[in-house]
Amino acid sequence: MLLLKDRYRAINFLGAGGMGRNFLAVDEDTPLKKPCVIKQFCPAPEIQNNRAAFQKAIELFNREAAQLDRLGDESPQIPRLLAHIEQDKRLYFVQEFIDGQNLLQELEQGETYSGVQIRQLLADLLPVLKFIHQQGVVHRDIKPDNIMRRHRNNQLVLIDFGISKELSGTVMRMGTTVGTLGYAPPEQMTYGVAYPASDLYALGATCIHLLTDVFPNEFFNPQEKRWLWQDVLSSRGTAVNEQLGQILDKMLKVDVGERYQSVDEVLEVLKLEVGTNNQTNLNPSIIGTWHGKFSNKPASLIVTRRSNNVFHGTLSVNEWISKNKIDVEVYFNPLTNKIIIREIRIIPGSIGGWKLVENNEGILSLDGKQMIGKGKSYGSYSWSFSKSDHK
């Protein structure tokens, strides 16, 4: 199996695209053999047989490595570059492994998004989009496939910078068009130019796909020059907030000059819509006291505070002659109602020989009053809690 620099060892083939192959790998130099991803430059035969296309492919491959090197260390929502390697006359780069799934996979496994979930998505993604634009970079390929959600903390990560481009002044020019049909705006697909507003268009297209489970290119009516996604929602007996609909429609304007020109403009409108509500107000509150059973033993879960997407608290499990108290972090995915209770440390003074099992996965009820799940790391025990102080 592939081994780079006697350090990065491929252990599983992940898939291939037009420009290369991806492998799940481990870093042999780390004590825990941390997972990573190897990207091997290996373009399709039709690209290799076209000199101009081959040179462009090399440029795009090296550019992705350079962008990750420049951006990944500054934002947890962009994968970090670990190495850029030429070995045996082949090009590779190694990047951080994102343990999670992309939003298209989420959509295929669950239901379409609600308006509240789309507002949360925008609140999570717009800041990282603002960051890359401030660095003079346009992503150019935003779509559900290129947005991943970490299993560990539900954080969204923007991936695949393979066709990203640095801005020259306010406009970026290319000899070829790039992007994904249905998500990339007309100026990018037709003329090969892209602006920050082009990324906002693609993000808007991503949102209407998640709202409807229909690919965006099926929504535009060229005769009326308008998007029909709200008509589709109406035919299903659903709708989004009027102002959110206006925001998405403006992000999707065909004329680039009629769109929001910056992330800040979108954030400002969202702030006016949401008012003083913060993220906690958009989701069921987990903070409070929960009582139930853990591995068939009486238990309580006290969640005291929140920082970003992580709740913090204490899990207490009562056994016959002992009581164990454990510091925990609770991760909640508002899109799937999935709960992860991660055990951090046993609190000094606990009585009993409790062993940390680390992860306990479950589901929060729709009314936010119950959670139920099973242990993941060891055994097949179950747990359940009911909120005793819901308001």
From TrEMBL:
Protein's UniProt keywords contain Nucleotide-binding: yes
Annotated GO MF terms: protein serine/threonine kinase activity
Pfam families xrefs: Pkinase (PF00069)
Lineage top rank: taxon: Bacteria
Record key words, sorted: ATP-binding, Kinase, Nucleotide-binding, Serine/threonine-protein kinase, Transferase
InterPro entries referenced in this protein's UniProt entry, alphabetically: Kinase-like_dom_sf (IPR011009), Prot_kinase_dom (IPR000719)
This enzyme's EC code(s): 2.7.11.1
Catalyzed reaction equations: L-threonyl-[protein] + ATP = O-phospho-L-threonyl-[protein] + ADP + H(+); L-seryl-[protein] + ATP = O-phospho-L-seryl-[protein] + ADP + H(+)
Protein kinase domain sequence ranges: 8-270
Name of this protein: non-specific serine/threonine protein kinase
